[in-house]
UniProtKB/TrEMBL annotation:
Keywords: Activator, Chromatin regulator, DNA damage, DNA repair, Glycosidase, Hydrolase, Isopeptide bond, Transcription, Transcription regulation, Ubl conjugation. Pfam families: UDG. The gene is mug. The keyword DNA repair applies. It comes from Streptomyces malaysiensis subsp. samsunensis. GO terms for biological process: base-excision repair, AP site formation; epigenetic regulation of gene expression. Its EC number is 3.2.2.28. This is G/U mismatch-specific DNA glycosylase. GO terms for molecular function: DNA binding; pyrimidine-specific mismatch base pair DNA N-glycosylase activity; uracil DNA N-glycosylase activity. Residues 15-170 form the Uracil-DNA glycosylase-like domain. The keyword Ubl conjugation applies.
């Protein structure tokens, strides 16, 4: 992709990968420009979502972003806290996060996943007004849906390695499997 093609994707919306009653609905912060340009979630080279999903045991092989629709077969889906695409998450306002949290809550109540997994604890804190949230399961629920804050898989989140992220995602997978 050229810089002009990426910039042209700014503010685009990317359709969710969802179905009713998913085991886990993964939630990114917002689509990056590569995601918006391709229409595939976590599409930027260097984003570790797809390798982490596989390394943690959620998928039997590493999927390519273009294979995102296969997630539903595994009881998984993808959405975002904020729908509009930007080059970086720090371009989003706190108000966008809070409004995104409200919209996300409505979506979760409608789709009823067993777990909502927010990939970015800082985004979770702002969107849901929980300043003390830490990585891991949260006490808050949305209806019957439990919430887990996960590390952001962006390559910019360097203090989490692929191995340590996969361990945390695997903790969620184990909890989701225990739920039935």
């Amino acid at each position: 992709m050229t810089p002009a093609e990426l910039e042209a994707a700014r503010d685009r919306l990317v359709p969710d990968v969802v179905a009713d009653g998913l085991r886990v609905l993964f939630c990114g912060i917002n689509p990056g420009l590569m995601t918006a340009a391709t229409g595939h979630h976590f599409a930027r080279p260097g984003n570790r979502f797809w390798p982490t999903l596989h390394a943690s045991g959620f998928t039997p092989r590493q999927l390519h972003p273009s294979e995102q629709s296969e997630l539903v077969r595994y009881g998984l889906g993808i959405t975002n806290v904020v729908a509009r695409a930007s080059a970086r998450a720090d371009e989003l306002s706190d108000e966008e996060y809070r409004e995104g949290g409200r919209i996300l809550e409505e979506k979760v109540l409608r789709l009823r996943p067993r777990w909502l997994a927010v990939a970015g604890v800082t985004a979770y804190r702002v969107a849901f007004g929980d300043k003390k949230a830490k990585i891991g399961p949260q006490t808050r629920t949305i209806g019957d849906t439990r919430i887990w804050a996960l590390p952001n898989p962006s390559g910019l989140n360097a203090h989490w390695t692929l191995t340590t992220m996969a361990q945390e995602y695997a903790r969620l997978r184990t909890a989701a499997e225990a739920d039935g």
